[in-house]
Write a structure and sequence with these properties.
By secondary structure, the protein is an alpha/beta fold. The chain has 15 helices and twelve strands. It has two domains: about 140 residues, Rossmann fold (3-Layer(aba) Sandwich), CATH 3.40.50.10860; about 240 residues, 3-Layer(aba) Sandwich (Rossmann fold). The strands form two sheets. A seven-stranded mixed β-sheet has the order 9-8-7-6-10-11-12. The protein has a five-stranded mixed β-sheet with strand order 1-2-4-3-5, with helices on both faces. The protein is globular.
Length: about 425
């Protein structure tokens, strides 16, 4: 987990060198960059659930542009370093999308699969008590992340509101619709990614009908991205879960695969039943497709497989799927890597819309959510593409420069540096 923090801080430092020439006051700029490398607050605590005790954290990274924003993760292999890296990346992601938030991340080091429903509820409530003094609609707005969901947000919201003494649905996003959740949130990350893909293809003269896509991952993000991309006219030739990938160069029916996976449990069994070609996750990454979409694990593309990547474009729907070494190598080969802080920013953007709806007490249709998402995401891509061309840098470097500039400018305007 330390690697993701090191990589994040390296990205900030390398991008700041490109950006520094835009600032006459180099001293204030450098001070801002150093402050961006460290979180503003680290909340730590221990949570007791019966005889068991779990370590819990909330990182609040930078609120120069608005309240802290970020998910709560329940995972046995999480760490404080991971939380800091993800909170920092969330600050960058919100800045890239142009939404008025800073980054945050919550973590409880626990395997929730080993808890009963009652224990999970208690854990969620105790975590909410720990962070309640530091959160609120205008302070810090948590959301679901790995192994958490709308029900867990509902439990936490109830604890928070009981403590402060009034209803405040805008304190948490990713809530059930019945408690002020937003239409379109379930598919938001995949939907946003599809909008970025459309903008990229339009700008670079890539034809959907002549393009093939391989997607690593069939969770919420991978499924919705593949389903929506197929509707846009792209051919999905491979998609995988943890057991391996289904491959068909004629194209896959994503909805049918979802039905079969639900019935049979995994793609290995689906391939047998449906008489489809079954390949490994590693083989999927090496397919000669137009667009490769890592939508599952961190560091999927690394020094061991980077030379075998045959795609024309890598489209990062997962967080941190490409190591720094592989990223440099792919750029040298002329393979565009469209970064995670842009590709998967649809989720936090629709979370922002949920917050806006909560604050106004007025709720939007799914059509309006998607229309606003498309406008926001398409503008973010255009802003990054402009910097890429002006500074002659990669899409990742351009995205980082855009994000850092927006955060640094906010810090300078506030007089923090």
């Amino acid at each position: 987990m330390e690697a993701i923090l090191t990589a994040t801080l390296t990205q900030i430092e390398e991008s700041s060198k490109v950006l520094e020439t835009d600032y006459p006051d180099k001293k204030s700029f450098r001070k801002a960059i150093e402050l961006i490398k460290i979180p503003q607050r680290v909340i730590k605590g221990k949570i007791k659930v019966g005889p068991k005790t779990f370590s819990a954290f909330r990182i609040e990274h930078n609120d120069a542009r608005g309240p802290f924003k970020g998910g709560i993760r329940f995972h046995p292999d999480s760490s404080l370093d991971e939380a800091q890296a993800l909170a920092t990346l969330m600050s960058l992601k919100c800045a890239v999308a142009g939404i008025p938030y800073g980054g945050g991340k919550g973590i409880v080091i626990v395997d929730p699969s080993k808890l009963t429903t009652s224990e999970l509820k208690t854990l969620s409530q105790e975590y909410a008590k720990l962070i309640t003094p530091y959160i609120g609609p205008w302070k810090d707005v948590p959301a679901p992340d790995v192994n958490t969901n709308g029900q867990i947000m509902a439990w936490m919201l109830e604890v928070y509101e009981a403590k402060v003494g009034y209803l405040a649905p805008g304190t948490f996003t990713g809530k059930p619709l019945e408690l002020g959740g937003s239409q379109g949130r379930t598919e938001a990350t995949g939907q946003g990614g599809a909008y970025v893909l459309s903008a990229y293809c339009k700008e670079n003269g890539v034809s959907p009908k002549n393009s093939t896509i391989a997607v690593q991952g069939f969770g919420n993000v991978g499924f919705w991205f593949a389903k929506i991309a197929k509707k846009l006219g792209f051919k999905i030739v491979a998609i995988s879960d943890s057991t391996g990938a289904i491959y068909d160069k004629q194209g896959l029916d994503i909805d049918n695969l979802a039905v079969l996976k639900e019935k049979l449990g995994n793609f290995k069994e689906v391939a047998k039943k449906d008489k489809k070609q079954f390949i490994t996750n590693e083989e999927l990454l090496e397919l000669p497709v137009t667009i490769l979409v890592p939508a599952a694990l961190e560091n999927s593309i690394n020094k061991d497989n980077m030379e075998k990547i045959s795609a024309q474009v890598v489209f990062e729907m997962a967080n941190g799927p490409t190591t720094a070494e592989a990223d440099h190598y792919l750029n040298e080969r002329g393979i565009d890597v469209i970064p995670d802080i842009l590709c998967n920013s649809g989720g936090v953007t629709v979370s922002y819309f949920e917050w806006v709806q909560n604050l106004n007490g007025y709720y939007w249709t799914k059509e309006r959510v998607n229309e606003e998402l498309k406008k926001t995401i398409t503008k973010a891509f255009a802003d990054i593409d402009k910097i890429k061309k002006e500074k002659r840098v990669s899409y990742r470097r351009a995205a980082n420069c855009l994000a850092l500039k927006r955060i640094v400018d906010a810090m300078m305007l506030r007089g923090r540096v």
